[in-house]
Each structure stands twice: as structure tokens, then as C-alpha cells.
Design brief:
Keywords: Metal-binding, NAD, Transferase, Zinc. This protein is α/β, with parallel strands linked by helices and 224 residues long. The chain is built from 7 helices and 8 strands. The strands form 2 sheets. The chain has a 6-stranded mixed beta sheet with strand order 2-1-8-5-6-7, with helices on one face. The protein has a two-stranded antiparallel sheet with strand order 3-4.
Length: 224
């Protein structure tokens, strides 16, 4: 499960660019790989609804585990143990049946004040995360990029919804081009990774923005 061989790609850096431009209110993700963090999204802007591998906690006493020692045990095929009580230590990811992190409750504050919701690569089937698509005010545009329409955006669309269906990377590329950010994003990726990574991936995340209309992006170019 540990995503040791994965690195942020161009989509992660698009989200980073939104952050750098002061457009990102919060990024909600179901991913547990920590690639949003690796791309430079600060903790204050990030809600990892299913947790991440960035930290680990003792299942007995609740103490945080030093990560260097934790991964040394994991990579050595040993069960990580708490240095205080010897309880089993597990990464802070949410397993089936466990409660979501308290930080997920930020959606109660964030979504009523967001003026645009960008949803990328999700089936909108896993609750309670899927219901976030309904959380913004009815006047707020929702931009959904995915292989196919899903959730209420398919069966109960709003008048200001925008659907871009197909490959996620292609959809992001179109949006970036409309915004006039193509070279800026390319420079960011090259600066951070040394090469432009354009692999096709499927992300499961949602982004709330605190600036309207992504700098004047025309909705008419999207598949509605």
C-alpha cells in the first residue's frame, strides 16, 4: 500500500499552482498517497478525508510515532511497535468502518463560502465524501472533470454546472490553456521535478476555490 514509487504529476502541480496564486480555499481528497503534500500543498489547505501515510499512531496509547523508525520497521517486514507501550503502530489512514478525521468537518465552514467547486476524477459513490458535491450554494458553479457523468451532476444537474468528460489530464490541459497558465504550469513542473510528467492517472479529489470563475474561464468550451 505504501506509495514509495509514486511522484506528483502535472495534475498535482496544477493544484499547487492554484495554491500559489491564492485561489485555493481547501483541497479535499480521498487519496492516501500524500502526493498533494509532495506537490507542495500546505497542511492548512489540505483535508485528507481518508488519512495519509504522512504520519502514524500507536493503536493502544495513541502516541504519534516517529516516521523514520516506523518506515524502517515496515521496510524490514516487521510490525511497527510503539516505543512507549509496545502497541502496534499503524499509518494514519482510515480503514473501513473507522471514523473520518475531525478535520473533515471543515466542509461545514468551507463549502458555504466557496464560490466555485472543482471536482476531479471521482465516481461520486463513496459517502460521506460524495455528498460534498451538493454542499455549495445553488448559485455556485461546479466544474466536473471525469471519464463520465456521475452522481447528482448526472441525474440532477444545476444550471451553472460544467462537465468536461474524458481523460483527466486532457481536461486539466484545456482549463490551463484557457487560463493562459500553460507555460507557468510547465515551468512549475520542471522546477519541481526536472521533467514534465504527463502520465494519465485517475485522482479522487475535490477542490474549493476562493476566487470566482477561475480568472474568467469561459464555460461554453466545456462538454455540458
Amino acid at each position: 500500500m505504501y506509495p514509495e514509487n509514486y511522484r506528483p504529476n502535472v495534475i498535482h502541480y496544477f493544484l499547487r499552482l492554484l495554491q500559489d496564486k491564492g485561489l485555493l480555499l481547501r483541497l479535499y481528497t480521498q487519496n492516501i498517497d500524500g502526493l498533494e503534500r509532495a506537490a507542495g500543498i500546505p497542511d492548512s489547505r489540505l483535508v485528507e478525508a481518508h488519512g495519509s501515510f504522512a504520519s502514524a499512531t500507536c493503536t493502544v496509547c495513541g502516541r504519534a510515532s516517529p516516521m523514520e523508525g516506523f518506515w524502517a520497521e515496515v521496510m524490514g517486514d516487521r510490525v511497527p511497535r510503539c516505543t512507549v507501550c509496545t502497541g502496534v503502530v499503524k499509518p494514519d489512514i482510515v480503514f473501513f468502518g473507522e471514523a473520518l478525521p475531525q478535520r473533515f468537518l471543515l466542509h461545514v465552514v468551507d463549502f458555504p463560502i466557496a464560490d466555485l467547486l472543482l471536482i476531479l476524477g471521482t465516481s461520486l459513490q463513496v459517502e460521506p465524501f460524495a455528498s460534498l458535491s451538493e454542499a455549495p450554494r445553488s448559485s455556485v458553479p461546479r466544474v466536473f472533470m471525469n471519464q463520465e457523468a456521475a452522481g447528482s451532476l448526472a441525474w440532477r444537474p444545476r444550471s451553472r454546472d460544467v462537465l468536461q468528460l474524458g481523460e483527466l489530464v486532457d481536461g486539466v490541459d484545456k482549463l490551463v490553456e484557457l487560463l493562459g497558465w500553460t507555460e507557468e504550469l510547465k515551468d512549475l513542473v520542471q522546477r519541481e521535478t526536472g521533467q514534465v510528467q504527463a502520465q494519465r492517472v485517475t485522482l479522487t479529489l475535490a477542490v474549493t476555490l476562493d476566487q470566482p470563475h477561475l480568472g474568467g474561464c469561459s464555460h461554453g468550451v466545456w462538454v455540458l
